[in-house]
Design a protein that fits this description.
With 333 residues, this protein is α/β, with parallel strands linked by helices. It has 2 domains: 198 residues, Rossmann fold (3-Layer(aba) Sandwich); 104 residues, Orthogonal Bundle (Arc Repressor Mutant, subunit A), CATH 1.10.10.60. The chain is 47% helix and 14% strand. The longest helix is centred in the C-terminal third of the chain and has 19 residues. GO terms for molecular function: DNA-binding transcription factor activity; sequence-specific DNA binding.
């Protein structure tokens, strides 16, 4: 049975600021903001207000080419109760000192500061996630862990703390917003919003490990999902096929036949693809040497790694990194 809001919750009307960085993902942006929008007509009174903030006031382009209008910029020193940074894969290369200063100042003032999708890179670079738990997209975990050892990564879909919040990206931002609505105004309103969007709140506390594997692979074979999980958690040194088979209590031949039937390719090739995707994340988002990345992803030497990388991605790792060296956005002169 849904609980009613307390008088203190009813009186709240949090002011939300959404800092949309260039090339932000529209899916994550909408998934975060729409539940708050729906809470206003579904509640007894308007529950939220929000403002879009850009690095500069004016249009901000999303990764799909659509634009939204930012009403103000960090230079205007807007004040909010909750600030969400929404960014795609460029968040580790956007370098606006003014925005970081504003976020730090708002955090000191008491605002709840957080991020959706790879916006976690942006606020972590500002030092705002040190000592906090953090959820981030699975593809970005390796580079995030390397760059920010003081941040405690978690396998949850989202994290909501009193002063910080993060989500794994995509529709997990929707689940996180529902959690915030419940904390702000009670379970009844959060449930009404969830029902309005025909959304199942069963995901609220789920560990995204199994969910992510099923969603990413489309597999239903639990044993083969476990095999892929073993591959992803054993990069250096990589497990041998017979070791994986043994952990699944299968013979090597039986494992390889079943894996090929489930995925369409042999396990050794699938495993190599996982390691190369991890390597690309490290090449593009860390300062590790190519040789260090090779060993971290289970390759015996940098030469063989570079050859495999070029075959897979059409570019050598060193060249791939050079293409991304320049910051995407910096402060205006």
């Amino acid at each position: 049975m849904a609980t009613a809001a307390t008088p203190e919750q009813t009186a709240k009307r949090p002011r939300i600021g959404v800092l949309a960085l260039p090339n932000f993902p529209m899916m994550a942006f909408s998934a975060f903001l729409e539940p708050f929008r729906a809470a206003n007509p579904l509640g007894a009174r308007p529950a939220y207000s929000w403002t879009i903030v850009g690095l500069r006031a004016g249009p901000v382009a999303a990764s799909n080419g659509l634009t939204i209008e930012a009403a103000c910029s960090p230079e205007d020193q807007p004040q909010f109760d909750r600030i969400a940074v929404v960014s795609g894969g460029d968040a580790d290369r956007i370098a606006p000192q003014g925005a970081w200063s504003w976020l730090r100042r708002e955090a000191r003032r008491g605002a709840q500061v957080g991020a959706v999708a790879d916006g976690a890179f942006f606020i972590a670079r500002a030092g705002l996630l040190d000592g906090h738990r953090c959820s981030i997209h699975w593809e970005s975990e390796a580079s995030f862990r390397e760059n920010f050892p003081a941040v405690a990564l978690t396998a949850e879909l989202f994290v909501v703390e009193p002063r910080r919040f993060t989500s794994a990206g995509g529709v997990s931002a929707f689940d996180m917003a529902l959690e915030m609505i419940e904390q702000d105004h009670g379970l009844a309103l959060a449930t009404a919003v969830s029902d309005w969007f025909v959304h199942d709140r069963a995901r609220r506390s789920i560990d995204r490990g199994t969910l992510s594997l099923r969603a990413r692979t489309g597999l239903s074979d639990t044993l083969m999902l476990k095999a892929i999980g073993l591959m992803e958690s054993h990069m250096e040194p990589p497990l041998r096929a017979e070791e994986i088979a043994g952990r699944l209590e299968l013979s090597r031949d039986s494992f390889e036949r079943r894996f090929r039937a489930a995925t369409g390719e042999p396990p050794i090739r699938y495993y190599r693809s996982i390691r190369l995707r991890r390597a690309r994340d490290l090449v593009r988002r860390t300062a590790l040497k190519v040789s260090e990345i090779a060993f971290a992803c289970g390759f015996a030497d940098a030469g063989r790694f570079s050859q495999a990388y070029r075959e897979r991605f059409g570019v050598a790792p060193s060249a791939d990194r050079r293409r991304l060296d320049a910051p995407v956005v910096a402060d205006a002169p």
